[in-house]
Amino acid sequence: MDGFSYSNIFETKGIEYLAVIAFFAILIPFWIILNKKVKRSKQFQKRLGVLTASVLRVPQGLFYSKNHTWAHLEVSGVAKVGLDDLLLHITGEVKFSNLKKSGDQVCKGDILTEIVRNGKQLNILSPISGEILNTNSMLNENFETVNQDPYGKGWIYKIKPTNWIAETNSYYLAEEATNWSARELVRFKDFITVSMKKYSAEPALIMLQDGGELCDNPISELPNELWQDFQKDFLNQPF
Question: 3: helix, coil or strand?
Fold first, then answer.
């Protein structure tokens, strides 16, 4: 027709379209590979036993104390308490000693129990006040559960709290808890660096050669004196 013209976009824009298609053809596989590497890196760290912030579990909805215990108030009004994941990564698998019994009364800051590994022990302080209703029977029957599932099946006590709101208002919650846990790991690295010199500890027991990352369970084989220093600096924090 007179006065009518048309352009074939595949003739005029063909190169640009092919370039865009080629770009995405390269980008998408690269993105998939990159994400797989990140996931593999985290899985590798867990298998290798590297203690980094990325392997720490910090579930939302729990109240975390500076003394590395947590508390969760259930709908029934009963609170569960337990140990946080960072503490268990630092010590390794532990057994429990001097557990409270049902009906015992505890105050915030009282010794709830002792955790023991290779003859060394740490005192665990109560994050809340109240009456002990139940002690987790799995603690001595299957103590590995605490390390595997510290916020679920690995709870230590069920307590009927007497002053929940006032005693938990300074605890860490949600994203604040995640950030605090990461800061505590940094603080622990400083602590262990000083302790290695103080007690002439073998670096291979604590650090990996590549990157200087912490090995998992770094204090498990270290002397009792270091455990007592850890108690004072990390578990005896004022409430």
Answer: coil
Residue 135: how many CA atoms within 13 Å on its side-chain side? Answer: 17
Look at residue 207 and tell me whether its pLDDT is greater than 70. Answer: no
Q: pLDDT (tens digit, 9 = 90+) per residue, 96-129?
A: 999 999 999 999 999 999 999 999 999 999 999 9
What pLDDT sits at residue 46? Answer: 42
Q: pLDDT value at position 24?
A: 58
In a domain, 9, yes or no: no
Q: What whole-number distance in Å separates Cα of residue 209 and Cα of residue 102?
A: 47
Alpha-carbon torsion, ordered 60, 61, 62, 65, to 10 deg? 80
In the three-class reduction of DSSP (H, G, I as helix; E, B as strand; rest coil), residue 102 is classed as coil
What's the whole-model pTM score? 0.78
Give the CB-side neighbour count of residue 208, counting CA atoms within 13 A.
Answer: 13
Q: Which of 154, 171, 188 is the last residue of a domain?
A: 171
Is there a single domain that holds both residue 131 and residue 92?
A: yes
Residue bearing tokens 């569960």: 80
Long-range contacts of 203-211 (CB under 8 A, 24+ apart): 208/48, 208/50
